[in-house]
Write a structure and sequence with these properties.
The chain is an alpha/beta fold. The chain has helices at 8-29, 71-84, 99-110, 120-129; strands spanning 33-37, 48-52, 55-62, 88-93, 114-118. It has a single domain, classed as Trna Endonuclease, Chain: A, domain 1.
Length: 141
């Protein structure tokens, strides 16, 4: 793997605000369009909206210094999917989902709501597999 702005170690150091911006940048490089940062009060549980191949996605970014993502992260993205009429949802985390969060994701899948987890390791793999990653983005501090 090549060093990048989504390296799991850098994601922990960057904190929650930078984490969402890094995820937003990665979505653009992965070919998502109409990427919108909606993070803030009244966001209905979503932090980022994006479209790829005609499919609307909503993303909930959960940065944590340690531990695992709680079930609340899945519930938030589920609420955002309903509100924004998104077909797919993702909880993006720099760490890993908790057992309760994964159980909730599986329960929602049984009723047709598709939610994925993208961990820090997944983000790095997505970046590494991206053919456009050779086009380096020079980030400012």
């Amino acid at each position: 793997m090549t060093e990048s702005y989504v390296d799991p170690k850098l994601l922990i150091l960057g904190g929650p605000d930078r984490f969402t911006r890094q995820a937003e940048r990665l979505l653009g490089q992965l070919g998502y369009t109409d990427v919108a940062n909606i993070d803030g009060a009244g966001d209905k549980g979503g932090d980022l909206l994006a479209t790829i191949a005609g499919t609307q996605w909503v993303f909930q970014c959960k940065w944590q210094r340690r531990g695992s993502v709680p079930q609340a992260g899945v519930n938030e993205v589920s609420e955002a999917m309903d509100y924004y009429h998104a077909e797919r949802g993702v909880v993006i985390t720099n760490l890993v989902p908790s057992h309760d969060a994964d159980s909730r994701r599986q329960a929602l899948a049984r009723i047709g709501q598709h939610i994925d987890f993208w961990t820090g390791t997944d983000l790095m793999q997505l970046w590494d597999q991206n053919p456009d990653r050779g086009t380096r983005i020079r980030l400012r501090d």
